[in-house]
Amino acid sequence: MSGAVIVAVRAANEAEIATAIGSRAGLSVARRCADLSEAVAAAQAGIGDVVVTSEHAQLDRAIVRRLEKAGLAIVGIPSDARAREAMLGLGILTVLAPGATAEQVAAAAHAASTEPRAAAAFPDAAFPEAAFSRAAFPNSVLDKLEEPHARGAMVVVWGPTGAPGRTTIATNLAVEAARGGSDVVLIDADTYGGAVASALGVVDEAPGIAALARAALRGELTQALFARHAVEVAPGVRLVSGISRADRWPELSAEALEAAWEAARGGAGLVVVDAGFALERADVLGGRDRNAATLSALAAADVIVAVGSSEPLGIQRLVQGLSDLASVPEAADARRVVVVNRVRASVAGAYPERAVADALARYASVAETWTVPFDPRACDAAALAGAALAETAPRSGARRAIAALAGHVVAVCSAERATTSAS
Fold it and tell me: Considering the chain, what percentage of its residues have pLDDT values greater than 90?
């Protein structure tokens, strides 16, 4: 059975490469494409097993993911060392050395066709430096991916529509975790109403997450670049601010954010993400989904903190939201921590903590519910100061509850990492 190769090479030896591929046993040229758009269309039509490509202006992480999702392996042919590093940064697993011959390209395509999505292994004598090594590129975000002990845990704070207090929980959870000794990166990934920077008193701040997403799409996201966009907002807490206008959501694609999450994990012990509420994939324009940022974060999460409010409508929304969350395949592997915010007797009865816990146990099968009391004076003071509760109201009930929650979440993350390491 021959491997069908799509050739999307913009180089003087394109014809020679196509001839070498067509002449090699076990390979055939399925399509010779003038640009990557044609190559992607062919791949999505089910034509081909391998794409051989040189660098193109269109080549970014999104294109790479589309080709991989279509089931194709990718072989990169860079023109120079800089282009080679850029291809590696995009996540292309088989990247030849600059100046590779047509026969070497054909051999790499054959190897990729027999082991799709795996880096082709070549004898050094036959192909000096033909296959890549992550160790050769220490500044790439990829350099952390093979070191599980170096990757921080990721916590995503999510909740249904209705403003249940996701940002309040996320910001204060991050601060409390840092006060407990964790090195924390806080990321605002809400594409509907990101407000973390405002909550922490950061003004006139360019959206760091958009800058990281742009760099990730180009394959240029490094730990140094990530550090430049992670601004210290409290001791032990660095903030990657969210988009300043909701209409900028197309900048936050899932393909770009996959690399951003890994960069964050590589630079912190704990990553806390404030995510949007929506889980549907309905709002798609030009292949981009407004909810992709939330879904991508959930897919990368070790722990999901699901936040609801204690009003009857808030509990109803949380019950439905937890059901919706359970149907999201991206979130299947993450541990759940359920939090009910603004708990008070006036809306939940004489024993509000017990009432909300019983309701969630009955209607959503939640075994353990964490509650945060309604504390408007403390929360208003923190909002006015643009600071965390630990700074403005350290003895408040809300602050004490979130501090306990943070300790629990960190412990869950540690247990998850220990389980992963043991397995």
Answer: 65
Tokens at 139, concatenated: 């500044």
d(CA 6, CA 311): 57
DSSP secondary structure code for residue 235 in this structure: T
User: Pairing mode, if any, of strands 184-189 and 270-275?
Assistant: parallel
What are the structure tokens assigned to 368, written together? 């353990």
Angle at 239 between CA 235 and CA 244, to 5 degrees: 145
pLDDT in tens, 106-161: 999 999 988 744 444 333 333 333 333 333 333 333 333 334 445 899 999 999 99
Amino acid at 306: A
CATH for 3-137 is 3.40.50.2300
Backbone angles phi, psi at 139, to 5 degrees: -90, -5
Spatial contact of 421 and 148, defined as CB atoms under 8 Å apart:
yes
Listed by start position, the domains of the chain span: 3-137, 144-422
What CATH code would you report for 144-422?
3.40.50.300
Give the DSSP letter string of 173-201: HHHHHHHTT--EEEEEE-TTT--HHHHTT
